[in-house]
Automatic annotation (TrEMBL), chains A, B:
UniProt keyword annotations, A-Z: DNA-binding, Repressor, Transcription, Transcription regulation
Domain HTH merR-type: 5-51
SUPFAM superfamilies named in the record: Putative DNA-binding domain (SSF46955)
Pfam families with a match to the protein in the record: MerR_1
Protein name: MerR family transcriptional regulator
Species of origin: Paenibacillus algicola
Length: 81, 81
DNA sequence: CGTGTAAGGAATTCTGACACG
DNA sequence: CGTGTAAGGAATTCTGACACG
């Protein structure tokens, strides 16, 4: 179910998080909801699971950066010897 | 996915139907979305599939009554001899 | 019967900011 | 850093009605 079909209100109910938290985790690049033409967010069930996982880890002491998805393997710096 | 999570707008996109049709099929007892506290409809993926099926049958000539789910087997009238 | 539409209101969501720590 | 909140606006959805056929 990677179909982006849920509004933030439904996600709020499903995850138990606040809209503030949900939007913040998006701002921190932890989730990537789609947008309607009007600008409203649309989430998938995967997003919901991810949010639950994220919040659990947060309570265990992780911060948003540590929970970020494995970034694209860009190679930079580390000049060769 | 019998989880009622989609707003009518998403259902409109997924089915290709108009909101008018979607609401009308509900009025005719063909689908049964839930409601938010505020009164907004929430549909499941099952509802979406059902709507697509319904509309297809409609175009084949069926009417809303004929497409109604098998009604509860209530017994009435038909006085015994 | 099944569907389109204009009308007015209400629920939902959005952004940017101030706050705290 | 992560989250709460009040503020104002905009997108979304709701109902009941008129229309056509």
């Amino acid at each position: 179910m990677e179909n982006k079909v849920m509004s933030i209100g439904v996600v709020r109910e499903l995850t138990g998080l606040t809209e503030r938290q949900i939007r913040y985790y998006e701002q921190r690049k932890l989730i990537f909801p789609e947008r309607t033409k009007g600008g409203n967010r649309r989430y998938s069930f995967e997003d919901v699971n991810k949010l639950i996982y994220i919040h659990q880890k947060m309570q265990e002491g992780f911060n948003t950066v540590e929970l970020r998805e494995p970034p694209k393997p860009r190679r930079r710096g580390c000049a060769p010897a």
